[in-house]
Amino acid sequence: MNLRIWVPILALLVMASAIYLVNTRYQSRALFIKSEQLQLQAQELDVAWRHLQSDRAELARNARIDRIARQDLALYPADLSRTLYIQGKPSILPPRGAQP
């Protein structure tokens, strides 16, 4: 009679263990898939970061700045023919509010 009690209890424990094993494997697979997705996202973000770094380097390049200054802003470096040098002592500025 003792065996009649233990067989159903052991059967229930084996079934509970099997269900727990299936659930654990399912969660493990779900976590693995999430991990793979996050690694892929990290790689995509790394590529995007490298593109942004490249774009920033291009925008800060001296040749580009020089081209924008010359073409868009019409700025040119000063040369000797366009430079006026004033000889003599520098004048003292009048105090603020004084009439010229």
TrEMBL record:
Pfam families: FtsL (PF04999). GO terms for biological process: cell division. It is found in: Cell inner membrane; Cell membrane. InterPro entries: Cell_div_FtsL. It is a single-pass type II membrane protein. It comes from the Bacteria. Keywords: Cell cycle, Cell division, Cell inner membrane, Cell membrane, Membrane, Transmembrane, Transmembrane helix. The chain crosses the membrane at residues 6-23. Essential cell division protein. May link together the upstream cell division proteins, which are predominantly cytoplasmic, with the downstream cell division proteins, which are predominantly periplasmic. Belongs to the FtsL family. HAMAP family: FtsL. Part of a complex composed of FtsB, FtsL and FtsQ. NCBIfam families: ftsL_broad. This is Cell division protein FtsL. It comes from Paenalcaligenes hermetiae.
